[in-house]
Write a structure and sequence with these properties.
about 130 residues; alpha+beta; 6-stranded mixed sheet; globular; single chain; 6 strands
Length: about 130
């Protein structure tokens, strides 16, 4: 199954809150379900900046220590992708906005993430993604 690594706390906001856009510097033509992998790396500074942004969106995120990392934690459906020159809601300016719907939490699967879209073997996800 296709997967995408996202740094915390953005991963948490996608699966557990209202973050329905993923900002990327590159477009995606794929439409359909994709695993969301919580990247292992997140600095305190990255976390703090993200936390402040989320608070501005009305979202209170958990403390960094309680956020899962280095694991596949959920599934979302990519339904669209558009480039935007302006910021809007969760969308950052000068980025491709991947429109996400139907976030689902799954039993976490420890896994090493990669850059870009990558494949997670079906036998690892069959039981937790239904």
């Amino acid at each position: 199954m296709k997967a995408l690594s996202v740094r915390q706390p953005w991963t948490w906001a996608i699966i557990h809150s209202t973050k329905n856009l993923e900002n990327r510097g590159w477009p995606i033509n794929y439409r359909g379900d994709i695993l969301i992998h919580a990247a292992k790396t997140c600095t305190k500074k990255e976390y703090q900046l993200a936390r402040e942004f989320c608070q501005g969106m009305g979202v209170v995120i958990p403390e960094l220590i309680s956020l899962r990392r280095g694991q596949v934690i959920g599934v979302v459906t990519i339904v669209d992708c558009k480039f935007s020159q302006v910021a809007s809601g969760w969308g950052m300016p000068e980025q491709y906005h991947w429109k996400l719907e139907n976030p689902r939490e799954i039993t976490p699967i420890p896994y090493i993430g990669r850059l870009g879209i990558f494949e997670v073997p079906d036998d690892l996800v069959m039981e937790v993604v239904a």
